[in-house]
Amino acid sequence: MQELLDAPLAPLTTFRLGGPATRLVTATTDDEVIAAVREADAADVPLLIISGGSNLVIGDKGFDGTALRIATTGFELGSATQRAEGRTHLELAAGENWSDAVARTVEAGLAGVECLAGIPGSAGATPIQNVGAYGQEVASTVTEVIAYDRRVGETVTIPGADCGFSYRHSRFKADPTRFVVLRVRFVLEDAGGLSSPVKYAELARTLGVTPGDRVPAAAARDAVLRLRAGKGMVLDPEDHDTWSAGSFFTNPILNAAEHEAFLARVADRLGADVTPPAYPAGDGLTKTSAAWLIDKAGFTKGYGTGPARISTKHTLALTNRGTATTEDLLALAREVRDGVHEAFGVTLVNEPVTVGVSL
Ligand code: EPU
Hints:
Helix content is 26%, strand content 23%. It is of the alpha+beta class. It has three domains: 2-70, Uridine Diphospho-n-acetylenolpyruvylglucosamine Reductase, domain 2 (2-Layer Sandwich), CATH 3.30.43.10; 75-230, Uridine Diphospho-n-acetylenolpyruvylglucosamine Reductase, domain 3 (2-Layer Sandwich); 240-355, Uridine Diphospho-n-acetylenolpyruvylglucosamine Reductase, domain 1. It is globular. The mean pLDDT is 97. Uridine-diphosphate-2(N-acetylglucosaminyl) butyric acid binds at residues 133-134, 200, 202, 231, 233, 246-247, 250-251, 277, 289, 291-292, 295, 301, 314-316, 351.
């Protein structure tokens, strides 16, 4: 276990923002992770779990406690017998790079996570906010999460059905100090090298197929990577458009009355012929697009003059142009949130986790 005092955290985040941690511990095995968590809990020291750092906004003052970096490794595919039955299991250590793991499943000819290519961060983070993109979310493939339960002081195995998954949410996000994810188990499909049926309209268009069709899994992955890169959503150290946490806000989900009030505001402001994006979200709920709201409230691509600006490729990504502080980023986020609320009466909620600060 490696240990550093007064350790900079900014380099461990995709925003490259935030002050130092009093202590930074790097754990490379599950036992080291558990030992570090137990030690912090026994001493009543605040604990911050960091892995890919792709969904974290750390305050400029940093973190007064132990930051635990999960650097565990492990990629294990199920047996040939499972594969002959058309499915196979995959177990990933929490510290595995997610996008690399996706690439390996596609190389192995398996389907189920190919549309989640290019998402920054680690495997252990995927069940926490039920990572999703281009018509797939991990809720559909996670069979079990192995986690250290800080409340009972033991390692537990939680079936996928008990993870409380919904849009960008789970029981882990609802109760963020209870579980430390150690390993995630998935079930993948062997469709003879083909992808899962393509669901997302934009992806189907890019691939020249009809939603519901299958394509070679590698073709689906490549198309997703191209789409993501076009939106600045694939990390590139040279490109400030990618110094972000991906989408900064979740897409708002409105009930029938809220949706009606929203449509009235849109008609008022933009004209009766303007139709905002709307996707059914179950139980009479409608999901609309945060990117669209931001754009139409006047915060267009590239908005801002300071060191924190909206990405030039996608309005939902707030970016550090290289010299920003967390306060700069938060000021921009508040301006966008308040401007959208004033224009359309809808309150945007941040997707990344904030540490020592809030919006
Ligand atoms: N739009 C704009 N301006 C823009 C970009 C988009 O008005 O600059 C509007 C368009 O109407 C577009 C709509 O927003 O049709 C939706 O845009 P997009 O297809 O890019 O999807 P999104 O809703 O912005 C979500 C996820 C992404 C995921 C994509 C693809 C959330 C919060 N974001 O973005 O996830 O990659 O769909 O599935 O659900 C992330 O969570 O960090 C993330 C990148």
